[in-house]
Known about the structure:
Blueprint: H1 3-28, H2 33-48, H3 57-68, H4 78-106, H5 120-134, H6 138-147, H7 153-158, H8 165-181, H9 184-193, H10 199-223, H11 230-244
Amino acid sequence: MNDIAQELLDTVTPYWEAEAEVSKRFFEGNPSNDGHVYWLRAQIWKELHPVDGYFNGIHQELVNMANMFPGIDKTVDRHHFSFLMKQMLEEFEHYVMFADIFEEIVGRKIDVDADPVQLPEERKLQELRQRYVASGSPIDKAAVLFTEGGGAAMFREGAKVRGGKLESMIARAMQIIYDDEKDHFREGAREAAELIRTREDAERMKSAIRDVSRQRVSMRLEMFRSPMSEADADAFVAAQARAIGTSAKGA
């Protein structure tokens, strides 16, 4: 990994570790079934609306792929299409596992029109991402994709949950998703770094990374009903940044 890619990782890691800490505190706090239902409704919404396709949702992405299919090996690279298919399958399988857990808790079938919910901080995150994507800057766009998934930090912590049947279901789902996503961030860092030509490019990307990643922390705080305060989260990010030796300005 080159120096720029590592610089990007050093910039984002404090925020991803903050997401991990929020998740860890929630799961270690013996949450109630209501607490689990709350985060599951929010996470299920996120699984149905992945950022990879820039906010179109799985349904629209599948429609787009169906429209692309006649162009395979003409105007559409078959390797790229295969990647898209695998990506969509992974996203849907993640939804399936979380929906199974939700149904286990509530004792009924999920109402896909009513149960998934976009919480306010998630809405702010999507709006922020959209502004960066719509800016027309490849640097901004790359920053959005690089920060997607939060380095799988939540899933890393969720895989450690122990207990009865419910906890086992959560841990299994989290481990599968973590295994699916744990290496994405390194490739994302390399791809983002390839766009950087000047120090100004690097600083612009790092600023966008901080902006989006800090909002991700607020999204997790809301999803898990604030197991730490926003001020505590900022202090945590700053401490992580100091440990890494990078700046957390903008937090």
